[in-house]
């Protein structure tokens, strides 16, 4: 059994595709947030949480019901990585805002958050997912910078692999 769970919410399939790539690279088990996989929050030491962003920085719909489960879960001693997809050109002022919403739920839970990413080479105006000059997790823009995604994913996996249990 893997020690890493990837929980994602996807509307158009882009986030699901990234989740599948990450699962293959990390030998992780995959869960769709729409199934409310509460058992994964207990069973796994490493949690990778991913979402797309909609509207004005809104969380993807599948997370709406499940985010409260994360808020109520005991994440102490868990290692958490975040990834988010967004559109840095058309929604450049709320880029990967959905990832920021998940971060705001887990940041005070005594978990160890890993995988911050430099904002260099990204095209966006502003983002709630930037803390201390870095993204709080892996940020991807499949619409405008999709040609950079594979390299960004591989670099992020290499980075967080050193910190996962």
From TrEMBL:
Pfam families: Flavodoxin_1. Its cofactor is FMN. InterPro entries: Flavdoxin-like, Flavodoxin, Flavodoxin/NO_synth, Flavodoxin_CS, Flavodoxin_lc, Flavoprotein-like_sf. The keyword Flavoprotein applies. PROSITE patterns: FLAVODOXIN (PS00201), FLAVODOXIN_LIKE (PS50902). GO terms for molecular function: electron transfer activity; FMN binding. Keywords: Electron transport, Flavoprotein, FMN, Nitrogen fixation, Transport. Belongs to the flavodoxin family. This is Flavodoxin. It comes from Marinifilum breve. The lineage of its organism: Bacteria, Pseudomonadati, Bacteroidota, Bacteroidia, Marinilabiliales.
